[in-house]
Amino acid sequence: MAQLDDRLLWIGGQYVAAEGEAFFDTVNPATGEVICRVAKASANDVDKAVSAAKIGQAEWAAMSGAERGRVLTRTARLLRQYCDEVARLESLDGGKPIAETPEADVGSAADCLEFFGGQAASLQGEYQPVPGGFFYTRPEPLGICAGIGAWNYPIQIAAWKSAPALAAGNAMIFKPAELTPLTALRLAELFQEAGLPDGVFNVVQGFAETGQAMTGHPQIAKISLTGEVGTGKAVMRAAADTLKSVTLELGGKSPLIVFDDADLDNAVSAAMLGNFYTQGQICTNSTRVFLHESIKEQFIDKLVARVEKMKLGDPLDPDTDVGPLVSADHLQHVLGYLEKGKQEGGRVLVGGDRAEVPGFEKGNFVQPTVFDGLKDDMAIVREEIFGPVLSLLSFSGEKEVLQRANNTEFGLAGGVFTRDVQRAHRVADRIDAGIVWINHYNITPVEMPFGGFKQSGIGKENSRRAFEHYARLKTVYVAQGDVEAPY
Ligand code: NDP
Questions:
Q1: 82: CA distance to ligand 1 center in Å?
Q2: Given 114, 178, 249, 384, the catalytic residue
Q3: Residue limits of the Aldehyde dehydrogenase domain (predicted)?
Q4: With a threshold of 0.90, does the pTM exceed it?
C-alpha cells in the first residue's frame, strides 16, 4: 500500500499523465516500502514538454531580468517557508538524515535561487569602438535547456541547474534520477506559486531512456547532467549529433592531505564530513585521506573514537547521523567494495559490514567504515564507491603525496590541512582538481564556482560563471561611415 498518491509529470504548469499511463515505483530506502507511483515519461512526453517550454520561454525571455529575478527570489522564500515539508520529503525518498536536509538540501537550493534571482538583472554585454564604427555584444538565452539529475542531492541539483538557466531567460526541462523523483515536482509547484509562467520549468520522470529522449531532442539547446562518468560520456556523445552544449558534473576520488602541523581535530571533522555526510554518497568526497606518517596514529585514535559514536537509524529521526543508502542495488555495490577491500588486504578499523537497524530490517544500512593498510593500486583506493567508506593512506613528503594524490583519472576536488600558509597555497596550486579546500572540506557556498577537471566533468555550476554556460553571446557591428567597396 503506497504512502502517497500517484505523482504525474509537470508539463506546461500542470500535472499530466504519461503516455499509456506508464508508472514506476519510488521506494523508501529505510523500509523498502513503496512511497508512491510516479508517471514515466516517453519520448512523446518529452516532446510535449518541449512544446510547452517553447511557449513558456518566449514569454519568459521577453520579461526584464529584474522581473525574472523577482520570481526566483520569491521561489527561494517559498522554499524556506515550506522547508520542513520539503526536507521531510527528501529524507523519505532518498534516505538522507533529516539532520541534513533542511540546510544542505532545501537551504542550498534556496540559496541558489536567491543568488541567481539577484544576478538576473545584471547579465550585460560590452561596447567597444573599432575601425569604422563600434560593436556591442548581447548575451542571449540558449532557449530550452535540459537538466538531468543524480539521486544524491535531488532538490539541490534541480535548483543548481534551473536557477542560472532561468535567470538567463531560458526554459528548463528537468529529469530527476528515477530513485528520487519527488522534490523536483514540489519545486515546480513553488515556482508556479511564485509567478513563473507556465512551461518555463517542466519535470519529466523516468530512466535512462527518458534522458536519452532529451539528449537527442533537436529543439533542446543544452544539457546539464549530474551523474557518473560513463553517463557523462554517453550524454556528450548523444549531444554531439545536434551540437548541444553540455555541462557535466561527474564522479570523483578526491584526496585530503593532512600535514604534520595540521589542527588534527579540524582535520578529523573534515575527513568525517568528507566521507560520511549523506552516507558518503557525495561526488566531491575525500575518499583518499593521506596522513603524514608522524601524525597518523594520533589521527586514527581521534577518528575511530568519533566514527564509533555515529548513530545509524531512521532518517526522519533528528538524532540520526547515518541513514540508509539510496537503494538495494547501491547497497550491494557498496558491500561489494567492502568485501574487495578486505580481500585485497585492507584492515578494517571500524565498521566494514551491513548494519542492522531495529525496526528497519529491510533498510539499506551500511556501517560507516574506515580502512587502513591500503596501497594506492587497490580497487577501493582507485574507484568511486559512493558510500560511507574512508580509505587511509600515509605519506612522508609533499612532492610524493602530490604525485600520488594526482595519480587518478578524476579531478573533482581535494583538500589540504596545514598551518603553513605557503605550503597550503602551494599544495592547492598543485592539486589537479576543480575545487580545493584549505583547512575545510565539502563546503559549497553558492558564490563559489563548482565543477571538476579531467574525467570529473566540464563546466561550472553556481557563481556568476554558471551564467556563461546558459547564455550565447551575439556580436553586433555598427558602421559609422560609408561602405568602401573596391568595385
Ligand atoms: P547516473 O549517471 O546513473 O544517473 C544520472 C542521471 O542520468 C539519472 O537521472 C539517470 O537516469 C540519467 N541517465 C542515465 N543514463 C542516461 C543516458 N544514457 N542519457 C541521459 N540520461 C541518462 O548517476 P547516479 O544517479 O547514480 O548518481 C551518482 C553519480 O553522480 C556518482 O558518480 C557521483 O559522483 C555523481 N555525482 C556528481 C556530482 C558532481 O557535481 N560532480 C554531484 C553528485 C553526484 P535514472 O537514474 O533515472 O535512470
A1: 27
A2: 249
A3: 16-476
A4: yes
